[in-house]
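Worked example

This section walks through a single chain of length 561. The input is the sequence exactly as stored; nothing has been trimmed or padded.
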Amino acid sequence: MAADSISLVLQCWACIEGPRRSAFVCKLEENHTSLNDMLGRLKNLVNDVKNKVEAAEVIRRMTRTEQVDGWLRRVEQKQGEAEDVLHQCSQRIANDCHCLGRYFPKNYFASYKLGRRVAQLLTEVDNLIKEGSSFFLSEVAYYRQIALSGEELPLPATIKGIDLMFDKMCKCIREDEAAGIIGLYGTGGVGKTTLLKKINNHFLLKTADNSDFDAVIWIVVSRELSTTQIRKKIGDQLGITRKDDTDQVAEATDIFRLLSRQKNKKFLLLLDDVWERVDLEEIGIPHPSTVTESNNKSKVIFTTRSEKVCGEMEAKKIFKVECLQDDEAWNLFEEKVGEDTLNCDPDIRQLARDVSDAEQQQIKDEVVVPPDEDYPNLIPIATFLATYGLGKEFPTSLFRSTKSLRVLGLSGFSFGKVKFPTEIVELAELEYLNLSRTNIKELPYELGKLRKLRYLNLYETRDLHVVSVEGIQKLLDLEYLNLFHSNFRDWEMDGRSRLMELFEALKHLTDFGVTISSDTCLQSWSNSYKLQKYTTGLCLENYKANSFRITTTTLEDMFLE
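Given that input, the structure is written out below as tokens.
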């Protein structure tokens, strides 16, 4: 009788609420079990899809598709939501009181709301399972295509003397298939970087007549940059980023696969300011020495100051960037100096031409000033070379009127009782300083103010006793430092050699002459490959050791005292 009454009530309720709504409540426990089972199936499916994706990414170095990546994100979100609903459902099933037996919960509307959400989740999870299953019939990853990378680089307003070389380079790049690696070498300041920038900008512009490369990559190497840093810069330009920077092999492999697997895709890698061999294989660059289908006529072009580096880089074509021709140099001189300056004195033009011819362009604008004259109205000139002769005393008053001096050659001059002419340290534009065979007694800490100095010659400074190593360390642009046959040889401090400290600070130093008088310093020198590599002159005083190791091939002068 009671069962008949319950059945009658439920039938009446079903008529009022409708069969679908009542099912949310009546089938809550059943749907709870179904949802829990479906979540288990979805979890297994996610693991299978992730395994397939990771195999493509790790082994084949591919990139997961946006569809797969979006599906995995939606699954993660839905799993969290479903687990929260299942937890609520379990609590309600366990704790809810029922009337009319187990058919009618006391808090009907809360159970109805929860039951409806469970039913919705069943449909959503089922759709995710169907979508995920389709990934086993299609690719979950793809090989990233090379997009045009790089950026236009600023060029000087005035460019002289590189048009002919630029045309030769472009012809070689386009027509010489065997020249996969091309080297540009020449002394500093002749325009190598400007030429490479012009090549970068030219091949970056894709037009109907110019579609040579799909990726143009510009890297400033310099002496400080390591292989790891070069690789990272290339990876950044190609859009390759790895969470683990320590996985260098994997990063190199990523770069290699991206650049070599693209059919009919070519890259142009431009390396500026190379000081020593760059291992392309270690970076991940496909070696373009031979024309094959894989590298597809890609090119690597670099600039360096050393022809030797061109050989070390296995360049198939080498171009030497020369100084400007006479007419080009004169036109540039006129542009830089300006008409007002040239016209202020009728002798300036002829003086500049005479000096240029006499020095054969080694020094572009030189003025020779007699030592007995005053200089109150001396025009600021970029370069000064003292040529008065050995042993004469130099008039230090000249420095007060030559603040823009860039080149100062004082070889053989006598400074009298002055330890060092302190006026020199105020010449902020100075790049070249030759004090060889002078009687200077001290090189002060203030010398470090000459931040633009690139050349410092102290050869045969027999009276030099005190040198501020800390001051020299501030000359960060210094390329040439010669202390060969100098009286200074105090390279030890607290039992350690300061040679390596000096060399580590001067990152651009490539020509070094030194006098060593202690076993500690000699040991430090012989144990450093890089220090030996850039030493061209070595004087050993009080040499007592039976032997020491020399691995350098650049040593030109060696003297034992």
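What to look for: The chain has three domains: 2-142, 163-320, 326-560.
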